[in-house]
Amino acid sequence: MIVIYGIKEHLNPIKAQLSEVIHGCMQAVLGMPEDKRAHRFIPMDAEDFYYPGGRTPAYTAIEINMMQGRAPETQKALIKELFNRIESVVGISPVDIEVTIKEQPAHCWGFRGMTGDEARDLKYSVNV
């Protein structure tokens, strides 16, 4: 699951485009199938969204929650691909993008009535 935070006046107009770009990166780097998009957008009022100095109101925070198993090189490749594609397609500078990958063991995930370590029918590999 991916959660995207930003100031609503900047985030709302680009949600669909940003979702396409993020999922394209997930497919290209992690091999995620087309139907495995799980994005949650949290558009916020400016007075509720504090961001670091040197950033603009386009500052966007992206939290990627995933099962453990991806190599550090794969995770770094995903982050760099997100910076590149978001800048080239959406127009947000890398200085205004923050990406955090949060990993949890497979047994901490629950979907389709089972835990992640019980799933045997995933259409993608976690260990990449």
From TrEMBL:
UniProt-listed InterPro entries: Tauto_MSAD, Tautomerase/MIF_sf
Highest taxon, organism lineage: Bacteria
Q: Which SUPFAM superfamilies match?
A: Tautomerase/MIF
Q: Which Pfam families match?
A: Tautomerase_2
This one is known as: Tautomerase
What organism does this protein naturally occur in?
Marinobacter nitratireducens
